[in-house]
Amino acid sequence: MIELNGESLKLSAIKKVCIDGMPVSLSEKSLQKVRKSRKIVEAIVSEGKTVYGINTGFGKFSDVPINEKDVHDLQLHLIRSHACGIGENFPEVVSRAMVLLRLNALLKGFSGVREEIVERLSDLLNMGIHPVVPSQGSLGASGDLAPLSHLALVLIGEGSVHYKGDIVPTETAYEKEGLLPIVLQAKEGLALINGTQAMTAVGSINLIETEQLALQSEWISAMTLEGLHGIIDAFHPALHEARGYPEQIEVAERIRELLKDSRLTTKQGEMRVQDAYSLRCIPQVHGASWQSIGYVKDKLEIEANAATDNPLIFDEDTVISGGNFHGQPIAIAMDFLKIGVAELANISERRIERLVNPQLNDLPPFLSAKPGLQSGAMIMQYAAASLVSENKTLAHPASVDSIPSSANQEDHVSMGTIGARHASQIIANLRRVLAIELICAMQAVEYRGVDWMASSTRQLYEEVRAFIPSITEDRVFAEDIERLASWLKTNQFEWKGTKQLINE
User: Fold this and answer.
1) Sequence-ordered list of residues with C-beta below 8 angstroms from that of 47, at least 6 positions apart, any chain
2) SS (HEC) of 345-377
3) Distance (Å, whole) CA 231 – CA 429
4) Residue 430: left if φ>0, alpha if ψ -120 to 50, beta else—which one?
């Protein structure tokens, strides 16, 4: 069980809760902070002080006073009117992450909600009731208003949820679990939707998947090196230490470890003096992508423990309206991640070309069993090229765009959720490109001699060959690509000494 306190949520814990399904508990110290901030809100309402979002309208309506008798209706209208999400729904794992992150933020005790609100969010996680949240419609400031409003609908018994493998009305899940809808009180609706939890949830799942793919790309590229008699000298530790980037050094070290007992790699001068960049520069290119992973991890873990709603309540005399809901830090991080992931796909596609192009190797043309009569892997390379070209469009930065909203009151926004969504698409494309490279690399090492492979890459080869057969004649390779991509998504390649950032 993961105890939440609003201060120490790590990506490793997000993975345990959102992917592994671990339940959560609430820190008593944090609950005390929640109770304290709620008393301040109740005092503001009873004393008639004017505070944004408690007894005023929202956005451009911030100057419109709200009567004390209407403050509850104000929150209900806010949630219903702001639930304007459109498009395909976020995956259920992202929805679960949104609930987790919103709960953790409220536990900081700066939001003024009742204890009942945080307990219900905890119930949703522990009972497996996850809001159905459309993926489009957020500007990334004032936070993820539209997506989080769909989350908030569930607390009041409205909207739909993922529940026991189905999508059902919230009221159906509540009846089965013995829950009653919550009647929102002053400040609570705003506290639920003013934040960056949609983009941060998508970003967190993105990073978990990216780290896994980055490690898988090293195993796959190592097998490609064997299939092309790659020169191992390019991974010598002295070379990478001379440059000094830790991530580059670590990639080279892992490739050396993977290939330490291979009899398919060569020394410089044996067959050629130098390899092409897509082989020789694996540590430099992959290492730079690892740098983006490290940067994004740092920003996501800060944001996962951040108070991002507005206003924030610090004490009776310090209730401050500000802009912590602005998603720019995560927007830029997601754009950086997009570039790092896209580059892993770019260099993978170039390795695929070297595996299938008879002008670049001494393997059968396009790895075909009967070149000419059968096309072999020819169009698999086309597909990979299409995916990396699409990635270049998706990698265009979302964070440099802004459209004013709310009658120009909110005149600069982050588009961070768009950046996070596009990163998800690039990640999915990378997974399929790596699947294609692995199919081609396995075919290449069969021609070279499987018995000469390194023990590590041989293990990968045998695991995948159990469900992806050798290319003995042409078949519908789309099925192989999808089957292998699904396998990559659910399998982690681990060996002794592997450093995984999200497990730290």
Assistant:
1) none
2) HHHHHHHHHHHHCCCCCCCCHHHCCCECCECCC
3) 29
4) alpha
The CATH number for 2-195, chosen from 1.10.287.500, 1.10.275.10, 1.10.530.10, 3.40.50.300, is: 1.10.275.10
Residue 226: helix, strand or coil by DSSP?
A: helix
Binned average pLDDT, 10 residues per bin, the chain of 504 residues:
96 96 96 95 83 74 73 86 95 98 97 96 98 94 92 97 97 97 92 95 97 96 98 98 97 96 96 96 98 97 95 88 91 97 98 96 93 92 98 95 81 90 98 98 97 96 96 95 96 60 58
What distances in angstroms separate CA 259 from CA 20, 246, 280, 379, one per listed residue? 32, 20, 14, 29
pLDDT reported for residue 362: 94
Q: In this structure, are residues 182 and 155 in contact, taking their beta carbons and an 8 Å threshold?
A: yes
Q: Which residues contact 361 (CB under 8 A, 6 or more apart)?
A: 228, 354, 355, 444
Asked if 158 and 131 touch (Cβ cutoff 8 Å), the reply is no
Tokens at 159, concatenated:
């909207």
Is residue 52 part of the annotated active site? The answer reads yes
CATH topology of domain 203-308+329-399+416-494: Fumarase C; Chain A, domain 2 (1.20.200)
Measured in degrees and rounded to the nearest 5, phi and psi for residue 159 equal 75, -165
Closest among 174, 144, 145 to 159, alpha carbons compared: 174
| pTM of the full structure | 0.94
